[in-house]
Amino acid sequence: MLRANGGGKTNEIAMKLALGPLLYYWPRQATLDFYADIADSTVDIVYLGETVCSRRHELRLDDWLEVAGVLAAAGKEVLLSTQALIESESDLKALRRIVAQGEFGVEANDMGAVRLLAAAGRRDWVAGPTLNVFNPATLGLLQDAGARRWVMAPEMSGAALADLLAGMEQTPQTEVFAWGRLPLAHSARCFTARHFNLQKDTCEFRCLGMSEGIVLRTREGEPFLTLNGVQTQSARVYNLLGDLPALRAHAGVLRISPQGEHTRALVDTFRAALAGELSPAAALEHSRQWMNDAPCNGFWHGRPGVEQYVAA
Amino acid sequence: MNPSQRIELVCPAGSLPALKTAIDHGADCVYLGFKDATNARNFTGLNFDPASMREGVRYAHQRGRKVLLALNTYPQAGNWGDWTAAVDRAAEMELDAVILADPGLMAYAAKTHPQLRLHLSVQGSATSYEAINFYHERFGIQRAVLPRVLSLAQVEQVIANTPVEIEVFGFGGLCVMVEGRCALSAYATGESPNCNGACSPGKHVRWEQTPQGMETRLNGILIDRFADGERAGYPTLCKGRFDVNGETYYAIEEPTSLNTLELLPEIARAGVRAIKIEGRQRSPAYVTQVTKVWRAALDRVMADADNFTVQPAWMAELNKVSEGQSHTLGAYYRPWK
């Protein structure tokens, strides 16, 4: 049963809202317009940069830094996210440039990034969701290496999170992926190029302008996954608005993953729910108008991720 | 190839008979796991209890071969003790190395059993020398198994920039996703390679003959449908046929096996130190067949890489045991991407 927020608690720190890195490949102007709009939004933290595919280049690092400057001037905490799958020497070069800039924090999305950040003595980085942090020993290690926040792997449950945090000597700031199609897998192969019978090296940038990838359906027509270049996402939208009371107990930051439209309205909905202006159940209902597929929240409840679980 | 560098043949053992046949047919190392979620092939009827593992280690060591223990899933706070106990047992049973993915567990192993050799599992998703060197500096890993995502030139680049020995997959079932970075099975079934050691687990599989053909489902989700006369494959969820924009095809990957036999001379020249055969879930007959062929091929390439040619009989034998009776070079071959 969904409980109302217990209001009177004094040990709760105000929960922050973060906008995760843009996982799709949008035209340059659309991307710039999107972030100009975000600068005016009430989101607290923004992660920037290309995390999915090194071939995507509508914005280069210098462009991202410029966007970062505008967002920082608008009062946002801005971080640059590193690519999740590093393959080539030029991928490493891009990674080193992100680590070398000192103006903005960094989200480390593979252990190579962790090594470089630790070696640079940086203490302002975030352990990203692809690092597979599942236990206190591993998280403690990353804290020692300089991580000041971590993003839980989406496949981890709320109960496992509670157990992990109970085992920490030094309480970390925890960020939970709370909205968006779930990033489920990365590959060396590009499934978008494959769909068009193209090879990745000559992909013609077919993913450009697909606002949220391509839906993959079962042979019964049921939406199942989303093809986003080398990344595979869920077709359903992970939506933890109905689970805010449990989230409040453990998470300090909630991540909203950018979607094709209405991202700013989503930020407002989360904000209203956090402020108690909307009950979790009402917020969930309210958000349905901005979802392009059915909601799911199974991972948070320790169940198959595809499920939409409501406790009896 | 540096002639002093022998390439080890690392073969799978899901049971004691598989272990023995791998050793008998020329494996330099076998890798195996306990009967629980501490390894990435946590399947019913598979793997070793402590007694059979002791016997396996004895059998291998008497013949001068090595046994590597896969402890390559990610422990959580609630079951942490099962994984550390498995590390302790590995040290006590004198296994030659443990293959780990979790950094916390590596730190435990390095501190508690400094003499125990550590390998970084493919589940650790380390695809660059920067990542591999992180594990080397922090925990002293001596070998890393590369995810099946790099081209040969990229493998060479890794080897040139790390003191860690590099092991690559040579043959067997092909993960099209980066190992350790795939939650597709968790999404569909709640059980993942990362946390449960299982992908598309059997208990969620349903085969059903329907008027449209044989349907295979995973936790109710239709993975594929086979016409009469089509061979119905196991519903590994990335190897089904799906509909994308009105077109039905293997949208992610065909049911096929990785086979890098023809690349062996280049693999040897790149400085790869070990070749891994996938398939702990496969039968002793599979292990026999594949070990025999790869032993012969590796001996040939180490003797004379320049004049190495793939014998048709080798390919014929391997194709017999391949998934879907077909094979691919995977990411080693750029157009595959």
Automatic annotation (TrEMBL), chain B:
<feature type="binding site">
    <location>
        <position position="238"/>
    </location>
    <ligand>
        <name>[4Fe-4S] cluster</name>
    </ligand>
</feature>
<dbReference type="InterPro" id="IPR001539">
    <property type="entry name" value="Peptidase_U32"/>
</dbReference>
<comment type="function">
    <text>Required for O(2)-independent ubiquinone (coenzyme Q) biosynthesis. Together with UbiV, is essential for the C6-hydroxylation reaction in the oxygen-independent ubiquinone biosynthesis pathway.</text>
</comment>
<comment type="pathway">
    <text>Cofactor biosynthesis; ubiquinone biosynthesis.</text>
</comment>
<dbReference type="GO" id="GO:0051539">
    <property type="term" value="F:4 iron, 4 sulfur cluster binding"/>
</dbReference>
<keyword id="KW-0831">Ubiquinone biosynthesis</keyword>
<keyword id="KW-0378">Hydrolase</keyword>
<dbReference type="Pfam" id="PF01136">
    <property type="entry name" value="Peptidase_U32"/>
</dbReference>
<keyword id="KW-0408">Iron</keyword>
<keyword id="KW-0479">Metal-binding</keyword>
<dbReference type="InterPro" id="IPR043692">
    <property type="entry name" value="UbiU"/>
</dbReference>
<keyword id="KW-0411">Iron-sulfur</keyword>
<dbReference type="GO" id="GO:0046872">
    <property type="term" value="F:metal ion binding"/>
</dbReference>
<comment type="subunit">
    <text>Forms a heterodimer with UbiV.</text>
</comment>
<dbReference type="InterPro" id="IPR051454">
    <property type="entry name" value="RNA/ubiquinone_mod_enzymes"/>
</dbReference>
<keyword id="KW-0645">Protease</keyword>
<dbReference type="GO" id="GO:0008233">
    <property type="term" value="F:peptidase activity"/>
</dbReference>
<feature type="binding site">
    <location>
        <position position="199"/>
    </location>
    <ligand>
        <name>[4Fe-4S] cluster</name>
    </ligand>
</feature>
<protein>
    <recommendedName>
        <fullName>Ubiquinone biosynthesis protein UbiU</fullName>
    </recommendedName>
</protein>
<comment type="similarity">
    <text>Belongs to the peptidase U32 family. UbiU subfamily.</text>
</comment>
<dbReference type="GO" id="GO:0006744">
    <property type="term" value="P:ubiquinone biosynthetic process"/>
</dbReference>
<keyword id="KW-0004">4Fe-4S</keyword>
<feature type="binding site">
    <location>
        <position position="175"/>
    </location>
    <ligand>
        <name>[4Fe-4S] cluster</name>
    </ligand>
</feature>
<dbReference type="GO" id="GO:0006508">
    <property type="term" value="P:proteolysis"/>
</dbReference>
<feature type="binding site">
    <location>
        <position position="182"/>
    </location>
    <ligand>
        <name>[4Fe-4S] cluster</name>
    </ligand>
</feature>
